[in-house]
């Protein structure tokens, strides 16, 4: 439930601009998600990307699928867009002369893989080829600029998509900072990452966009050194110990006593 967070208001409050859609390797209109829970497909093993495995759709969220590799445990689920080049219909690997591999951490003896594969595919509901959408092309150069707002996957909690800001740009890479989280979840990624989306994406896919955190950071990578004390919020001046990174579980506060704009550069 995210009826309270509105990008329009937030951009005004923070005096910031949304990164334009042409910055992203995402289709302008999010692809429709026709997959159903239980369907099987082929996916590159995120922990061993050269191997192609069988995966089952465990959940549907917006334009993404929650996937689990057959023969793996339930602790390594991953999320992919329906237009990701990491997923393909069953049969694709064989058609290309490849062999389906057991996932990293295959729970059985390796010698039982061939029989496991037969059994897992026997009677399986295979996702139709038409459900897989073509991956959009990558934008020519990196168009991102520091300060632009976007929606980004929290890599530590990859089911979450959150309001974020470009904190830094270096060549082909961008530094994704999560608004209101004091840097605890920030990461570098390529500008053409499939985990970053234009403002409004979740609104279009029906995904739940997380509200920004309400923790204030005093300084941040990319922040100007001459940040005047007036820019430091009352809370952070009163209790400097609160500016230390907090464990993820206790990072959230229920109140919203700080304007969201002060949480970012
Ligand atoms: N388990 C954490 C989740 C924090 C998510 C932070 N993201 C949104 C940047 C919590 O309960 O606070």
Describe the protein.
A hairpin with a 2-residue loop joins strand 7 and strand 8 (173-178). By secondary structure, this protein is an alpha+beta fold. Helix content is 12%, strand content 22%. The protein has 5 helices and 10 strands; from the N terminus they run αβββββααβββββαα. The protein is elongated and about 60 Å long. The protein has helices spanning 7-14, 92-95, 113-121, 201-205, 234-238; strands at 40-45, 48-61, 64-69, 78-81, 87-88, 149-153, 161-170, 173-178, 187-190, 196-197. N-dimethyl-lysine (MLY) binds at residues 154, 157, 160, 162, 178, 181, 185, 210, 248-249, 251-252. The site of N-dimethyl-lysine (MLY) has 12 residues, from loops.
| Separation, N- and C-terminal Cα atoms | 27 Å
Helix percent band: 10-25%
* Spatial extent as radius of gyration: 21 Å
Strand content: 15-25%
Average predicted local confidence, pLDDT:
85
- What is the count of DSSP helices, taking H or I runs of 4+ residues? 5
């Amino acid at each position: 439930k995210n009826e309270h967070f509105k990008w329009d208001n937030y951009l005004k409050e923070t005096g910031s601009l949304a990164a334009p859609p042409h910055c992203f390797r995402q289709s302008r209109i999010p692809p429709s998600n026709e997959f159903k829970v239980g369907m099987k497909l082929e996916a590159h093993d995120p922990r061993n990307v050269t191997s192609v495995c069988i995966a089952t759709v465990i959940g549907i969220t917006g334009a993404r699928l929650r996937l689990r590799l057959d023969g793996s445990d339930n602790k390594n689920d991953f999320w992919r867009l329906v237009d990701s080049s990491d997923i393909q219909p069953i049969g694709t690997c064989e058609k290309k002369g490849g062999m389906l591999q057991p996932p990293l951490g295959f729970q059985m003896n390796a010698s039982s893989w061939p029989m496991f594969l037969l059994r897992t595919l026997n009677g399986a509901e295979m996702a139709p080829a038409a459900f897989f959408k073509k991956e959009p092309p990558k934008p020519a150069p990196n168009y991102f600029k520091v300060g632009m707002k976007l929606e980004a996957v929290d890599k530590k909690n990859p089911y979450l998509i959150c309001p974020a800001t470009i904190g830094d740009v270096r060549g082909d890479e961008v530094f994704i900072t999560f608004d209101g989280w004091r840097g605890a979840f920030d990461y570098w990624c390529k500008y053409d990452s499939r985990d970053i989306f234009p403002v409004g994406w979740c609104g279009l896919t029906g995904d739940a966009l997380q509200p920004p955190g309400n923790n204030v950071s005093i300084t941040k990578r990319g922040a100007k050194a001459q940040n005047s004390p007036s820019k430091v919020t009352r809370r952070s001046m009163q209790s400097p110990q609160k500016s230390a990174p907090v464990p993820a579980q206790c990072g959230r506060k229920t109140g919203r006593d700080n304007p969201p704009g002060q949480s970012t550069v």
